[in-house]
Design brief:
The protein is α/β, with parallel strands linked by helices. 43% of the residues lie in helices and 14% in strands.
Amino acid sequence: MSAELTGLMAMQQPFEHQPVMVDEIVELFRPVPAGTIVDATVGGAGHARALLEAHDHLRVHGLDRDPDAVAAARSALASFGDRATVSHRRFDEIDDIGIDGVSGVLFDLGVSSPQLDRAERGFSHRFDAPLDMRMDPTTGASAADVVNGYAEADLARVLRDLGDERYAGRIARVIVARRPIESTTQLVDAIRSAIPAPAQRTGGHPARRTFQALRIEVNRELELLPGALDAAIELLAPGGRCAVLAYHSGEDRIVKERFRTASTGGCVCPPGLPCACGATPVVRLLKRGAWKPSAAEVAANPRAESARLRAVEKLAA
């Protein structure tokens, strides 16, 4: 099957995304007080639907920056009536929804399967498409703007820091030499020519890390996350919970650090000694470390393998 035909079929697919660790998410929100769960990355509404079906005491307000996801979520949740609403917003705009004292907040970070599988979105190295990668294609700079506009040193930094790309400098050098690069295929060709042949035979597709780094940079994913997490914790009612699914080491480090700060109140006292700095914890960690998907789930959905789930519960004032 040609890449063009495969891409056309992907464009025609409905916005369907298999939710990761859905049973764990449902259980995490079982004890929360009656009220609203904010699904800050609602996508195809897989987690939202599961929460509404399992918990009669909860409503869901879904957010997503992707207009396709907003339309899909509204359709998927229509049968729940006024128990479900969906807004076209980024997750860092959670303060603007006008709901105080929410029962929970859920973040399912990263890119969704429909975004990867729809060729025209430019997220995937598998299809020939314009370089876009914007989760909200109506606003902001595209991947083409980054690839063709960043200085070589800045481009190498993005690939190294956001993609853990070993050959970031070599790839950046080739990209600059081949500008303008306007399609995913042109970018893949540049990456292949920059990476030594022996290195291309291990570790998956040679363009995978570069595409990941560009997507994170274009959508400012790591930049927006710390403030969004702090705002989510602030919105929680006592007993409410915030849960985050992360798939990238940089995302998970941010979640771990913001949850640790909230659970210690930002205490700066030496470990092992009583707190003398007056810090007041605002949440408790529901698990030290992260939950991981089961072997059975990974076998059924390989994209779940890198998932890490962390959660906290809001303390009474």
